[in-house]
Amino acid sequence: MTATLPETTGITGQMIIAGAHVRGSGQPVRAFNPATGETLEPAYHYGDSSHVDAACSAAAEAFAAYRATTAEQRAQFLEAIAANIEAVKDAIIARATAESGLPTARITGEVGRTTGQLRLFAGVLREGSWNHAVIDPAQPDRQPAPRPDIRQRSIALGPVAVFGASNFPLAFSVAGGDTASALAAGCPVVVKGHDAHPGTSELVGRAVTDAVAAAGLPAGTFSLLFGDGPDLGTTLVTDPRIKAVGFTGSRSGGTALVAAAAARPEPIPVYAEMSSINPVFLLDGALATRGAQLGEAFVASLTMGSGQFCTNPGLVIAVDGPGLDGFVAAARDALTGSPATPMLTPGIARSYATGVDALTQHAELVGRGQPGDSECACHAALFTTDAATFLKSEALQAEVFGSSSLIVRCKDAAEMRTVASTIEGQLTATVHADESDYASAGELLPLLELKAGRILFDGWPTGVEVGHAMVHGGPYPATSDSRTTSVGARAIERFLRPVSYQNVPKALLPSAIADGNPDKIWRRVDGQLTHD
Ligand code: NAP
Questions:
Q1: Residues of the chain with CATH 3.40.309.10
Q2: For this structure, is 273 an active site residue?
Q3: pTM
Q4: Does residue 5 surpass a pLDDT of 60?
Q5: pLDDT tens digits for range 428-451
Q6: Which of the residues 11, 132, 262, 494 has the least number of beta carbons within 10 Å of its own beta carbon?
Q7: Architecture of the domain defined by 14-274+485-493
Q8: Which CATH class is domain 279-457?
């Protein structure tokens, strides 16, 4: 069955290369509504290497002028993108809901998150600490040798390739966090849109392109391509004009791109957010006082959005006993009643089913949600095992993307800590603790710091606040570079690099490190932070 969305969407099935709407030459791809089984028009034809070349060439050409814009100009540009997205919000919500099968309320929230991220980076630009402006004034009389005048600031890396994520058609896609932070840094962006939501990508791509034109920026500041990952995606990442990559998706896709980037004659950083099972530690006191309540809340987090969150709680760890039994019983009851909801694509639904089958071979089934009759239905699953079995099994530690989780029963708190020390790197680690658990939690905390980008108490990992203090990152395989975050203000740092200016004539110094502080930003002068 094929459906056409209302005319208001006005989408054409074309890529956008430096402001020009270009029809691809390759195989046609149509979006698919996983909730209804409908195929959505129009067809998007894949681009080829000539399109990658055109986008990268325009991005490289745009770079000098774009990075020379002031922070205020870039802030206004990001705000204009946000306003343009809001102006076509209804069309975006209709198309993204159809392409993802996600509820309208979720997509509406994601539009707000996306525009909020763009505005956050506008604020970051105006605040100025991203410059990392440092001045070590000359000490001509220093003995035994004089000190030269040395100043430091951060500059943009160059054109950035961004891979749109399947599971956030807006907030981690065409104008999502990677694009917003790269544009904020002064980097032109070439996006490879995700096949799961090409119409949404085109609508948002047009919002960005219109803002580029209205701001008088070089057209190559932004391009949007469609194509096969291993083919067009790899060509993009290995193009010598691309200087960094932002990616969210599978471990296999992320590691392939990291390898391709590392094998270039000029290797470049790939910021890939990949695989995480987000352990949740339930401590004894919390289980004793509110085990059943925790069980219900856990299932709500597990099944939200068919579990298609990188922060989905895929692992629960607790000491065996009546408290945990109460948690498991409540979770089983809640899960059994949970309806099947559509997953984003038939491929993701198939890999979910394969992952659940693998867990069935190695762990005991606690319960399943309601089955569904469509090929994309997510039939939620909960398993349990003991810590000794878990620690020996690679299969039990693998991410199953979707509403699937495993409860690991430990014999004591020491075994719980062994599990915490053994698991792979994670985006999040959650602890549920009462005051009586603080001694035990205090022993766990330093172990979790080494494993996760975000540690949270008495909540659930799904739902990532976009702000200045957020870290959405973590050691491999959560990401390919644990020193960074893909959400929040610090995401801009991925696309910057420091430069020192030694004895550069004052007339030639960039404003961020010029005498008199013309940008009015915080700077470290002779070791002290100052606004003067
Ligand atoms: P994906 O397969 O990794 O694809 C993400 C993007 O990377 C797509 O544009 C894809 O292009 C491209 N790509 C994939 N493999 C590539 C390769 N070897 N070389 C170059 N480019 C490559 O992720 P997905 O489509 O979102 O979902 C598939 C699976 O990813 C899920 O089942 C889940 O396991 C995982 N996932 C994890 C997260 C997370 O946050 N942890 C989020 C989303 C998905 P093509 O589409 O053309 O292949």
A1: 279-457
A2: yes
A3: 0.96
A4: no
A5: 999 999 999 999 999 999 999 999
A6: 262
A7: 3-Layer(aba) Sandwich (3.40)
A8: alpha beta
